[in-house]
Amino acid sequence: MSSAPLPPEALDAWLTALADRLQLNPADVPVGDLLDVARDVAHNVARPAAPLSTFLIGLAAAKNGGTGADIEAACAAASELALDWAPEKL
Length: 90
Hints:
Elements: H1 11-21, H2 31-44, H3 49-63, H4 68-83
Helix pairs in contact: 2-3, 2-4, 3-4
């Protein structure tokens, strides 16, 4: 198992392979939207929250029908929350 990071040019190949393994259509994966959400969450909430947030987006989209519009709505909701995130100090 390699610990080297994935070079940017290999992203499409990785996503295609993973989508195939998960029996998904790679065209149904809104890469730009998901990366934008991950950035917003990582910068405004916490880095570890980014992958967990994209997982929750996938769950929410699937629960609500799994269409492209469902994914876009979940991404928009997550980004909105992340950009407004200001938790009270503990």
